[in-house]
Amino acid sequence: MSTAEVRPTRQRADKARNRSHILDVAEEFFSQHGVGGSLETIAKRAGVGPGTLYRHFPTREALIAALLQARYEQLFDRFGIIKAESSDSNHALEQWLDALGEYVTAFDGLPAPLRVALSEESSPLAITCQAFITATDELLTAAQRDGYARPWIRSRELFLSVLATAWLRGAALADESSSRALRAILRSGWAEPAPTAE
Fold this sequence. Notes:
Blueprint: H1 3-33, H2 39-46, H3 50-56, H4 60-85, H5 89-103, H6 111-117, H7 126-145, H8 155-168, H9 178-188
């Protein structure tokens, strides 16, 4: 192998190593500071210049999408298991919404870029969000067919409800039971039947 052939191979290996190292540092940093943390600080901690970071990940959303890739694959493995093992469409939908809830709380602040991605097709997270909605729709349709879910409910709103519940965790007024209570409210509604006159 000539020197000219060795150099590009080494450059590709260095590039892959840099990318992997940036992702490791970003994972730790976002776990501590949330997804709104400084990208320049991530670059500094990774020992690379901001330009190197942006060459690998041109936007914050691209970095988040790369970090979430492994979790995304694990989540859809779980989706397959839920579909295969649950004979109860109501239970299957509940399990999937719980799994989605775990995914969107991987990092503090994650619901915000996912919500934005729903209306920005150019976002690297947009395809991810659409895949979640499509999977939710499959389980929701089965639950509606079996009479467990109201016919006017849409999968998009269910996904948004997962994001809303995840966002609530960081709200100033929230306590340990708030997320659980909101999930229950979203599932069954808050209104009681009108009292009957005696």
